[in-house]
Structure formats: structure tokens, C-alpha cells
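Weekly modeling sync, notes
Attendees: S.R. (lead), two postdocs, one rotation student

Agenda item 3: backlog of single-chain predictions. S.R. asked that every request posted to the team notebook include the full sequence so nobody has to chase files. The rotation student volunteered to paste the first one in as an example of the format we agreed on. Action items at the bottom.

Example entry:
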Amino acid sequence: MTNQPDRLDRIEAALDRQLEVNAELRTSIVELRATAEALLQTVQIHQQNFEVIVDEIRQMQSDIRGLQTENRRIWERLERQDQE
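Predicted structure, as returned to the notebook:
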């Protein structure tokens, strides 16, 4: 029966170590969750910035089309004046 206390000591040590591992895992999970939330916020900010840039590009495209149309009108007037 001398093995019984040794065995109980080993079991108790294993349980203590398991408690330590569980605590470390909980800490890691909390840190990972915080990191994931920070990354999500960063992605959301980048998405908003991207949407603003896309809107600005669309506006520039519209402005360019308007300038092209105006340039064509001016060009056509100049051509008509040359023909007269």
C-alpha cells in the first residue's frame, strides 16, 4: 500500500498541472479574442475607407465623362466654324 500515496501524489500533481494549463489556455483565449476584435475593427475601418475611395473614383469618372462630353461639343463647334 506504499504505492497508494505515491499514486495519489502523482494524480494530484497531474491535476494541479492541468489546472495551470487550463488557466493558461483561458488567458490565451482572452488574448486571441482581443486580437480578433482588434483585427475586425481594423478591417471595418479599411472597408469604410475603401468604400469612400470607390465613391470618389466614381465621382471622378463622372466628372471625366462630363469633361469629355464638353470637349466633344467644343471640338464640334470649332470644326463647324472651320467649315464655314
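Discussion: group reviewed the output briefly. The mean pLDDT is 95.
Action items: rotation student to repeat for the remaining queue; S.R. to check formatting next week.
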